[in-house]
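Hi, here's the filled form for the chain we discussed.

Project: internal
Contact: R.S.
Residues: 282
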Amino acid sequence: MTVSPETTAWVQQLLSAEALHAVVDLCAKENIDVLPVKGVITGRLLYDDVSERPLSDVDVRVRPRDLGRLLVAGRRAGWGVIRVQRAYANVVFDVCGRMVDVEGTVGPPGLCGLSVDAMIARSSFDASLGFGHRVPELHDHALLLCVNVFKDKLVSASSHAMSDLTRIARVAPFEPRRLAALAQATGAATLVWIVADWLARERAAEPWRLVRGALHPPPRPRYAALFRRWTEDGGAGSLRLRLLVRLAHDSKTRRAFAMAALAAMSVETRLRERTQSFSRRR
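And the returned structure, exactly as it came back:
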């Protein structure tokens, strides 16, 4: 029997909500604030039916200082640990058969100055999933979604991630100038300008045209022009573009930090691979 994409998406949303419930309950016991983001939230916020929004995992954010405690608590609860990337403040669990991606930053470290601490402070509580949980402030969430598609070089971002961005700008009380001000305050003005420009050109998204106008010209116009040229050249998977993405922050200091974090992650990954290879040989 063939299962429709809508049925598959509905099941994914249902199972993801169950996994998130387990995460929220455990975090409450450990006195850890946890903030769900992206598809598990946007599926109900931005779509008439959750079956319109497929998702492959559950994304949550916690304060960086809480990540280690959550890792210990998750292991104690019997969750499988799929990946630990300390340089990126990232842990991926298997919870109730669903992948739960926990991060302590908004995007790769150094890419955006919006902190998880600030997002949690401005979040509100909701029960649309059938249990109490936090929901990001609308503009904070929109900025996180911008970072999410930008790190995937726009052209490689999933269709539902782009759909989330298009739709979130239509939700009241979204204000283009408020998002622009947040982007400027967090050093992400050029990044958001690039995303808004792409959405305005490729999706004819009027709210994003207004965001672009509020940020025009971007703080780093040469960077924006270079990013557009390299993505249009079809090199989305190239090393040069992957490095360019990490240099999006408007501050030189933060760009240096982003490259240091990338180098640290590369070293961590190599060490882990060598350790695993050595273990297999034994």
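Let me know if anything looks off before we file it.
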